[in-house]
Amino acid sequence: MSIIPSFFGRSSRVVDPFSLDVWEPFQAFTDLAAGGPSGQFVKEASAVSNTQIDWKETSEAHIFKADLPGLKKEDVKIELEEGQRILQISGERSKEEEHKNDKWYRIERSRGKFLRRFRLPENAKVEEIKASMENGVLTVTVPKQPEPQPPQPKSIEISG
């Protein structure tokens, strides 16, 4: 559950029952005792956490949408862990080429690897997952199994 604020980025007070995030309560203290986290670690953690994905449920499907500007579909990988019902979306934003005479004033766009995992509910038809990418927006559609109709009571006529 994601109710623990992040040391490196935005905090979340939303309880996500499908989250696979594991809170390591002593990790921050270990990093601080060693002089703090490395700049590379902070950049990588930021790249992973900055990939924001919306998940909505409609009457027909679960729909995941991710803004991935500048990425091609070849840069993104979508996997399903069988038996676990875990959808994993990952990829990498490559670093721009740097030339010796370049002078950078600001670097704000995230780069590096990203990875997000979601535990799918029991009603997901994992064998029918579809994905598309248009204008930098990845859409993953996971169809739902129809909800079983509750049995209707049958009237029985009394004779006699």
TrEMBL record:
Pfam families: HSP20 (PF00011). InterPro entries: A-crystallin/Hsp20_dom, HSP20-like_chaperone, Small_HSP. Residues 44-159 form the SHSP domain. The keyword Hydrolase does not apply. Residues 141-160 are annotated as: Disordered. SUPFAM superfamilies: HSP20-like chaperones (SSF49764). Keywords: Stress response. It comes from the Eukaryota. PANTHER family: HEAT-SHOCK PROTEIN 20 FAMILY MEMBER. Belongs to the small heat shock protein (HSP20) family. This is SHSP domain-containing protein. It comes from Picea sitchensis (Sitka spruce). The lineage of its organism: Eukaryota, Viridiplantae, Streptophyta, Embryophyta, Tracheophyta.
